[in-house]
């Protein structure tokens, strides 16, 4: 059955998804040991966050983790929420993002609609 999320996802490619920035928050939170750390998160993506000792480290970690998070959701057939703001950042390179996340096998599928990618990440 088609959902509004699936219909929206069918409109953009993997390249567009990877290069459109999500809103990012950084906050100080106590970790499991009660030590204060910085948490960088994308509130539009449930469970997409990184903890680090410093804010900058958390932001860098989130940038690396975000690519893996998005690709894993697509590979498992889960919908990927589109960022609220639609402008694509042209200085980001989707190929480099996938390589950095260890997901280079997805590079040939970058310009395919996300909805056409099967669970293995290859075009249907």
TrEMBL record:
Protein name: DUF397 domain-containing protein
Lineage, broadest ranks: Bacteria, Bacillati, Actinomycetota, Actinomycetes, Micrococcales
């Amino acid at each position: 059955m088609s959902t509004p999320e699936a219909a929206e996802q069918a409109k953009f490619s993997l390249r567009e998804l990877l290069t459109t920035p999500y809103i990012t928050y950084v906050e100080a939170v106590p970790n499991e040991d009660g030590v204060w750390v910085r948490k960088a998160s994308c509130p539009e993506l449930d469970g997409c966050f990184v903890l680090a000792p410093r804010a900058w480290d958390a932001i860098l970690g989130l940038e690396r983790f975000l690519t893996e998070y998005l690709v894993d959701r697509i590979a498992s057939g889960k919908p990927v929420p589109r960022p609220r703001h639609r402008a694509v950042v042209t200085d980001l390179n989707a190929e480099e993002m996938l390589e950095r996340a260890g997901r280079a096998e997805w590079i040939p599928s970058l310009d395919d609609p996300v909805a056409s990618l099967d669970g293995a990440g290859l075009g249907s």
